[in-house]
């Protein structure tokens, strides 16, 4: 009888293993994900194939060969060399850089303004707290597109003409055509001054890391502000005068109906940057306020009992703990700002949507390729922003033992 029992067990073992495999959560999750990915690939393949078939039936060419054709139109703001003879591929990079420019500047200024407003919202001064609250409730409840149009049409377009420009000395001019600033001119020896400045920044970062480790081990603080000013400002100034002032400035000069020379900030960029900064800062302020409120009040009381002033209590005790709560929703605001920059088309700022998904698409008719490239750019920018913020989030997160 024993041999028969063993044979029955061996016969039922494969079915038991297969049954266990079907009930394995890891195996089932892999199977379901594989099926979902396959279905998604088939879905997009069907859509793209049908679109290409319809375009071919209408005699519309497909592919990316159009990127080598001359564009034939000008762009008001370019960070790289460009004119009408350059290709559509060049217009793509011009629009991409303009989008990245306003996104990076907007994130930078919105973060600073948002942190200031968030802290002011919790101020013990009634007037400061109320003003911050009015700002937040006003600007976050007005649509962003209306704010962009307000700054462009109601503010910047009402500035005087070039001949009646508002000026600060003989260096800065503001008029309806934009803001005109001096541009630096680098002569022989300027590379040494720049090198000294870069070395000063690197040394400041290295000393800052050392100072943090020292404070963690001994509790002693290092005057990093004075050290940073000495290395990044005083030292380059000494090198600048020793090398005979090799960096000068080229000032804008009015010739005819516009200024020439210097660097100009077009009103479209200014209006878009102002609107994005003010609008996003109102949301960041609430994120900062909630993050600070989430820190136990006992932490503040403990710091105050040690004799720390309010400014250092906020800087050294409260904000480092609040960052763990602030960073995840802050990342979402950065992503929103980058995507909201596409509203620039409403005022003619030459971003990627306006230049490439707008003018280039109208001239070439390559809708699928252009829209796909534009979507890919915004997806890449968003993923890159998320990656950098997640790396920073891991640095400030609590490490479990």
Automatic annotation (TrEMBL):
- UniProt keyword terms in alphabetical order: Amino-acid transport, Cell membrane, Membrane, Transmembrane, Transmembrane helix, Transport
- One example GO MF annotation: transmembrane transporter activity
The record's principal subcellular location, in a coarse class, is: membrane
Quick one: a GO cellular component term? ATP-binding cassette (ABC) transporter complex
Location relative to the cell: Cell inner membrane; Cell membrane
Q: Which Gene3D superfamilies match?
A: MetI-like (1.10.3720.10)
Domain called ABC transmembrane type-1: residue spans: 96-389
Q: Which organism is it from?
A: Vibrio ziniensis
Does Transport show up as a keyword for this record? yes
Q: What is this protein called?
A: Amino acid ABC transporter permease
């Amino acid at each position: 009888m024993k041999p028969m029992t063993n044979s029955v067990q061996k016969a039922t073992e494969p079915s038991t293993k297969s049954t266990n495999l079907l009930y394995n959560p890891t195996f089932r999750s892999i199977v379901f994900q594989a099926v979902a990915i396959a279905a998604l690939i088939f879905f997009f393949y069907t859509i793209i194939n049908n679109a290409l078939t319809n375009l071919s039936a209408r005699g519309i060419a497909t592919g990316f060969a159009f990127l080598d054709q001359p564009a034939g139109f000008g762009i008001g703001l370019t960070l790289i060399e460009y004119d009408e003879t350059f290709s559509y591929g060049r217009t793509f990079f011009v629009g991409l850089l303009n989008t990245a420019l306003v996104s990076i500047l907007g994130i930078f200024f919105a973060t600073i303004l948002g942190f200031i407003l968030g802290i002011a919202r919790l101020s013990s001064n009634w007037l400061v707290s109320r003003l911050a609250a009015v700002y937040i409730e006003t600007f976050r409840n007005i649509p962003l597109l209306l704010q962009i149009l307000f700054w462009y049409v109601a503010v910047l377009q009402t500035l005087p003409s070039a001949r009646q420009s508002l000026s600060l000395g003989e260096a800065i001019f503001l008029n309806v055509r934009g803001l005109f600033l001096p541009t630096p001119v680098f002569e022989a020896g300027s590379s040494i001054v720049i090198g000294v400045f870069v070395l000063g920044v690197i040394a400041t970062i290295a000393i800052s890391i050392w100072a943090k480790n020292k404070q963690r081990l001994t509790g002693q603080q290092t005057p990093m502000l004075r050290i940073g000013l000495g290395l990044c400002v005083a030292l380059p100034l000494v090198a600048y005068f020793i090398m005979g002032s090799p960096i000068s400035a080229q000032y804008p000069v009015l010739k005819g109906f516009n200024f020439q020379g210097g660097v100009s900030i077009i009103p479209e960029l200014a209006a878009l940057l102002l609107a994005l900064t003010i609008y996003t800062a109102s949301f960041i302020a609430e994120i900062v306020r909630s993050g600070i409120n989430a820190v136990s009040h006992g932490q503040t009381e403990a710091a105050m009992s040690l004799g720390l002033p309010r400014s250092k209590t906020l800087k050294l005790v409260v904000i480092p703990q609040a960052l763990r709560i602030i960073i995840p929703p802050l990342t979402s605001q950065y992503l929103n700002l980058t995507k909201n920059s596409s509203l620039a088309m409403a005022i003619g700022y030459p971003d990627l949507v306006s230049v490439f998904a707008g003018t280039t698409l109208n001239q070439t008719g390559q809708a699928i390729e252009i829209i796909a490239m534009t979507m890919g750019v915004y997806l890449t920018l968003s993923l890159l922003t998320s990656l950098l913020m997640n790396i920073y989030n891991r640095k400030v997160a609590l490490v479990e033992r």
